[in-house]
Specification:
about 325 residues; mainly alpha; Rhopdopsin 7-helix transmembrane proteins; three-stranded mixed beta sheet; two-stranded antiparallel ribbon; about 70% helix; globular; disordered N terminus
Length: about 325
């Protein structure tokens, strides 16, 4: 398509993870198995929390929402990535690319705020246990969840507002398996230095600040926990450590990707794979494996729906 003397890019070519056919088949089987096992696991976490009255506290409410966000996040890029393994010409339309960027940043931004909401919940539970039930009510929980979606939407729409006016007249190759702002901005025909600098602040620096603040807050909570009783201390400390693990898993790749917008490194693809596919699905699973109440509730749920044994013929 021509517009004056300048051609307009209508699609982008995704170079993918590897050009070798054997490597593509291996990666396809690997990610299909992983996706097929972990995705139902996250759904099971949501069903368990929703169906068990013992898991009605705000902490589990936030965890179920985190699992839902992670399922949505991992449904943005992996389906097309798996389909492209069997395609010799891997492309994505311009509109499809914009949609991917929108949902990646909508869900990613929402997760960041939800993680902060979970930190607030733990702060009130540990530092103000007697006022916890009156402060963290169901209405407050829903407000925090809706606020996370609202902030994620604003963060994402800002990205789109700055990308849509950019002219793309070639080249149109993205050295990755999905569209993200760090790659597509560099394909614009005009100078994008100022825009890349803004994206560094909007995505990279904001992630870094949230990461540092969360670590400081959980570090302070762990110090506070040492002053409590032995039984409550162990449980609170275990919860805080689990949250810290999730923070490292979630923010580490994001900081790596969005804090070096001006440079490309060979390790970028590997980090992008874990950031968009592997780590998000693992977050609720890690929480579940370290939480005795959820494991017990899952056993009760599975036991309740276990098929009845065949009647004896004797």
């Amino acid at each position: 398509m021509e517009n004056g003397n300048q051609s307009i890019v209508k699609e982008f070519v995704l170079l993918g993870l590897s050009q070798a056919r054997e490597a593509q088949l291996f990666l396809f089987v690997l990610y299909l198995v992983f996706y097929s096992l972990i995705l139902p696991g996250n759904i099971l976490i949501i069903v368990t929390i929703r169906s068990d009255p013992r898991l009605s506290s705000p902490m589990y409410f936030f965890l179920a929402n985190l699992a839902f966000l992670d399922i949505c996040y991992c449904s943005v890029t992996p389906p097309k990535m798996l389909a492209d393994f069997f395609s010799s010409h891997k492309t994505i339309s311009y509109k499809g690319c914009i949609v991917q960027i929108f949902f990646l940043h909508l869900l990613g931004g929402s997760e960041v705020i939800l993680i902060i909401a979970m930190a607030i919940d733990r702060y009130v539970a540990i530092c103000h246990p007697l006022r916890y039930a009156s402060l963290i009510t169901r209405a407050v929980c829903w407000t925090l969840v809706l606020a996370s979606w609202g902030v994620g939407f604003v963060h994402s729409i800002i990205q789109i507002i700055f990308i849509v006016p950019l002219p793309f007249c070639g080249p149109n190759e993205l050295d990755n398996f999905f569209c993200d702002i760090t790659q597509i901005v560099k394909l614009a025909c005009n100078d994008t230095y100022a825009l890349e600098f803004f994206m560094f602040f909007n995505s990279g620096l904001s992630n870094m600040m949230c990461f540092i603040l969360l670590l400081i807050s959980y570090g302070a909570l762990l110090v506070k926990v040492k002053m409590g009783s032995s039984e409550g201390k162990r449980k609170a400390a275990s919860t805080c450590i689990t949250h810290i693990i999730i923070i490292f898993i979630m923010f580490g790749p994001a900081i790596y990707i969005y804090c070096h917008l001006f440079l490309d490194f060979p390790f970028d693809k590997v980090v992008a794979i874990f950031h968009t596919t592997v780590f998000p699905l693992m977050n609720p699973m890690i929480y579940t494996l370290r939480n005795k109440e959820i494991k017990q509730a899952t056993r009760r749920l599975l036991g309740k729906h276990r098929p009845l044994a065949w009647p004896s013929l004797v």
